[in-house]
Write a structure and sequence with these properties.
The protein is α+β, with helices and mostly antiparallel strands and about 625 residues long. It contains 21 helices and 14 strands. The protein folds into three domains: about 350 residues, no CATH class; about 40 residues, no CATH class; about 70 residues, no CATH class.
């Protein structure tokens, strides 16, 4: 195990046996004090799985590190470039043309537009009795996503999937504790008391470099594996604070006496720090922050074999291990959905690989060619703009020739005065062998666009050319490009968003304890106001959410404004033809037209009392009214 320099106390596993913080462990687990036989056996089981997984996953780290380098503006200098820069800081270095960065940003922009509009997750009830409950469930989860900033975690997961081939995350139930000031009527003074300020679903991102899946199953079948885990980099104080509020955690105080780093991953193998000249771990900072590597491992175990209970059938358990020596948690998941709380996003997966090729990895070779074309062209330009002269030092004064600046006066030597200056100095002919590099770079970028689907129209760039483009051609080209991106978002919707929506709903129904308030504004405002009579907000209890629900999946496309004109023509046609329009909901069509035209808050303009509804009477009812004299034909 590597050692980290530091002034705070570090002791070996053997020394931990002499330390006793008198922890009380959860019922049925027995004594899990560090150094005991049972504790160390569980630690070994966790480390064996982590190491087996890392040995397979680490084979891809060098390739991912290269991808990290393409997402910056330069790469590490070689020895020759460092020597040149010492002489002249203006000399060219190995630049990276940020085209891979532009590509991933273009695709991410589309993904964000598709998935991150509130509400991120949508639900509907199975029966009419479940309708209002499903609306409440959606509103509660929307509030949880806003407070825990789930959209940021999803953006990271999407970015990882495009850069490394997959992105991983773990949904968990987050209880945020703090203090609340209350007025004590007895004393007439304010006082502070500890309380749970908020509870709800949150999302934890898993670094692909630190992800530890079961290597026997492909990337998309995480639920079929015998285990899945990852390593989280945190610090001693944060871990100790977590133990304060988590009744299932223990042994955190023992972390103060160990190294804290895991031997599974010997060092930071990513290229995120090296590309900017930093270090992932700094020994000087370690004395202050006291970093800790915590291995999270979900394992399907038979409790009786592990001596953690009497169960004889497989159960999913969560284990947390600090460094390589201190077990912090060992508990059955007991989640209603009975799944590993881990989701994977791999839009370019092949169905069989553990680590699929990423979108940026496909164009990595082209990115290298593009960097070479730019770097060599810049180097040749610098070479050409510096004078390259052939000089006869016997004929001219070399000190005058070396003086920089305009209006230069170069004197000939006294021995050749009056004989002319021909052949004293001659400019060496310079040939620009890179004059076609910029044209070649355009071809390379075009191929990169075709391979990644991030074409000019999606980047906001108008195609060059002298001929004019019609509106129809521009629209059709853009829609074709969007349809290619829609394929990847459709995969992400099925693979990732559906699982997250299901787990978020299941966690809320099972783990929510406190009542919460939701806003009735939005697309369900009328239904909630008619049911409960509230005009601004309403209180939701955990019992209100005990309903049967289904997930409303996203189809992976965005409502593109290019079709607004088509919908407008359809709306006008339906409005002018009552026989046809009577079969459609004109208010919903109008709202859809407003949304794709850019109006996101159309519900704010709906009249109180609900939307207009047309009630059509059957022919028999109309005939009966005519006979009564209440109606007559026109």
């Amino acid at each position: 195990m590597r050692q980290v320099q530091g002034s705070y106390n570090r002791r070996s596993t053997e020394a931990l046996k002499e330390i006793n913080y008198d922890y009380g462990y959860p019922a049925g687990l027995g004594n899990l004090k560090p150094g005991t036989e049972k504790h160390d056996k569980i630690v070994k089981e966790i480390l064996d799985r982590a190491q087996a997984s890392y040995d397979v996953m680490s084979r891809r780290h060098d390739y991912w590190k290269k991808i990290d380098h393409t997402l910056t503006a330069y790469i590490t200098l070689d020895d020759e470039e460092e020597y040149v820069l010492e002489k002249d800081t203006r000399k060219p270095v190995s630049i990276v043309v940020p085209y891979s960065y532009a590509t991933i940003e273009t695709i991410l922009t589309y993904w964000v537009s598709v998935f991150l509009e509130n509400p991120i997750f949508r639900y509907r009830g199975f029966t009419s009795e479940d309708t209002v409950g499903s609306i409440m469930l959606e509103k509660v989860i929307e509030l949880q996503c806003i407070r825990n900033k789930v959209a940021l975690n999803l953006h990271t997961q999407f970015r990882d999937s495009l850069a490394y081939g997959f992105g991983a995350s773990s949904p968990y139930w987050n209880s945020h504790w703090g203090h609340r000031s209350i007025f004590d009527k007895t004393t007439g003074m304010k006082r502070r008391e500890p309380t749970r300020l908020f509870e709800g679903n949150a999302l934890m991102n898993i670094d692909p470099y630190l992800y530890l899946p079961d290597p026997s199953v492909p990337i998309q079948d995480v639920q079929k594996g015998g285990f899945v885990g990852w390593i989280d980099k945190t610090n001693y104080l944060d871990t100790l604070n977590s133990e304060r509020y988590d009744q299932d955690m223990f042994n955190a105080k023992y972390i103060a006496h160990i190294d804290g780093h895991t031997s599974t991953i010997p060092e930071d193998t990513s290229g995120r720090e090296t590309k900017v000249g930093g270090e992932a771990r700094n020994a000087e900072i370690s004395d202050i922050t006291r970093p800790i590597d915590i291995t999270y491992m979900f394992i399907n175990i038979i409790p009786k074999e592990w001596k953690l209970g009497l169960g004889e059938y497989p159960e999913k358990w969560l284990f947390m291990l600090a460094g390589d020596e201190v077990l912090l948690k060992a508990q059955p998941l007991n989640l209603d959905h009975n799944l590993y709380p881990v989701t994977i996003c791999a839009p370019d997966y092949d169905g069989y690989s553990l680590t699929p090729i990423s979108r940026l990895e496909i164009i990595y070779g082209l990115q290298g060619i593009l960097d070479f074309l730019f770097t060599s062209h810049v180097a040749n330009i610098r070479k050409a703009i510096n004078d390259m002269l052939i000089v006869d030092p016997y004929l001219i004064n070399m000190s005058d020739l070396k003086k920089p600046g305009p209006g230069k006066l170069i004197r000939t030597r006294r021995a050749v005065w009056g004989r002319g200056v021909e052949n004293a100095v001659k400019q060496l002919a310079v040939t620009d062998v890179t004059r076609n590099h910029m044209q070649d770079a355009g071809i390379v970028m075009d191929v990169m666009q075709r391979s990644s689907s991030a074409v000019d129209s999606l980047m906001g760039i108008i195609r060059g050319g002298s001929e004019r483009r019609s509106a129809t051609e521009s629209r059709d080209t853009r829609m074709s490009a969007l349809s290619r991106l829609a394929k990847s978002t459709k995969i992400a919707s099925i693979m990732t968003m559906q699982d997250l929506a299901y787990m978020f709903a299941s966690h809320t129904q099972q783990l929510m304890e406190n009542e919460t308030y939701i806003s009735t504004a939005g697309r369900f405002q009328q239904e909630l106001e008619e049911e409960y009579g509230f005009s601004t907000g309403m209180k939701v209890s955990p019992m209100d959410l005990m309903i049967n629900y289904d997930i409303v999946s996203h189809d992976g496309t965005i409502e593109a404004g290019e079709f607004a004109e088509v919908w407008l023509q359809m709306y006008q046609t339906l409005a002018q033809n009552p026989a046809v329009g009577s079969g459609f909901d004109m208010v919903r069509i109008f709202k859809h037209l407003a949304r794709i035209s850019g109006a996101k808050n159309v519900n704010e303009f709906v009249r109180k009392g609900g939307s207009a509804q047309i009630k059509l009477k059957q022919d028999e009812e109309i005939e009966a009214e005519v006979q009564k004299g209440n109606m007559r034909p026109i």
